[in-house]
């Protein structure tokens, strides 16, 4: 996964892609995929240390299936499912960490979300999952637990916009390059974290755990000068 971090020139995140997650955050359902960016510096490879919660931040978790691009892709047609899936090199489990109070403020004031998504360690990722371990990325069970209590557990079959449509819409705006990471959205069950909490996450295919997809990481307080204050 260190190589994934080194090779990712960008991390593109699909928002509001599961209906029940949209409802739990009282958001509007999008008419087409929309996306935002996280910096590759936010990637936390396996066994690279804890998630660091900045001072004053209300930290939330969001488990997602990550797509790792295998070749340069641009201007892909939304109906080209084969072209989209052929462009994928592999997968990973990811946790899109969010400074929810910073995001809520940004949304309210019409400001960018970058600060809410971009802190160092805000993207724990599993080991690389070879493409042949996930024959159908729309038939995968994602799960996440906090202190061994399951908080998220849903099928990627519930995505509003499937992965080919996501890659098409992104590639019509910006070129996806080999090594780029696409986060495909989170199901319902997102919630808050406290210092000392232990996150575990993974995925199942056909009811069987995929070992490469396991994440286990603790939350610790971030030292340093940053402290959340309203803009």
What does this structure look like?
By secondary structure, the protein is an alpha+beta fold. Helices cover 18% and strands 32% of the residues. It contains six helices and 17 strands. It has helices at 2-7, 19-24, 81-86, 100-109, 114-117, 163-171; strands at residues 11-15, 34-38, 43-44, 51-53, 59-61, 63-69, 88-95, 98-99, 123-124, 129-130, 141-146, 149-155, 181-183, 191-192, 198-205, 208-209, 215-221. The chain has a six-stranded mixed beta sheet. Strands 4, 11, 12, 15, 16 and 17 form a six-stranded mixed beta sheet that branches. Strands 8-5-14 form a three-stranded antiparallel beta sheet. A hairpin with a 2-residue loop joins strand 11 (141-146) and strand 12 (149-155). The longest helix is centred in the middle third of the chain and has 10 residues, at 100-109. The chain is globular.
